[in-house]
């Protein structure tokens, strides 16, 4: 019952970059109305597997991700969209590069309305930019928003913020920025793609959503082009907590997912009638369309899978999900997949 209430009240998971930025702008405006002028926003950028129409919920990692400079170009466009959406105006924005890392280095930029200069958005700030950020923060009434900061605040023996009193001062400064919106992705386990749903694979892809004024994190399991609400947390769940969720689920989270609304409605009807939801066993959710498992196809029975009909991209996606090497010609991949399926079925 608690989860049902939480799911009903949870913020809707953005299905596109435009939706994510619109939600971030709404959260930012709400925070400004409450007098919060130092803000932090974390958004998944529409790059790599998330690039292109209808791909924002795609979680299957690409073999060759885009360069840091290309990602920053997209992030800069996102920063402009966010800044204009928050201000509800069409005033021209000035852009100042404060970090030029070239093709694969650190990049950062400052955005502000050309005439009024009444708010500042900093895109991809790093620890090296802290002195500049502190100068901007001296104007305490002016909104200052950090979009996707690049520093790491935990887990480092040598902090990005220095050591001793310098570290403490920098951490205190950064902690003064309220997290008003966060849409993050966490990959658990070693499989590529973690969203395949194969019972024997210990991995998954989660997305975390938090939007002001709510203080809770809503956790979603990504299942191809769908997402399943899992739970909400007062604090950001740790990697270990997410691992435990997967372990406790005994495969149910990975295989009880919805390909379309018809499947969802049928599952909910079965649960209401006291029946069981589709999960595990012979019907392994490895669905493959033109881009392979986890991208919104039907539930597939591995035993009945027609390996000869699969294209190279589909073969590689199945092999990745089964933890098998993906290099080689099509004929080699087909043979390798047959062997992997035979092994999986024999283990069952």
TrEMBL record:
The record places domain SAP at: 307-341
Question: Per its UniProt record, what SMART domains does this chain match?
Answer: SAP (SM00513)
> Any idea what this protein is called?
SAP domain-containing protein
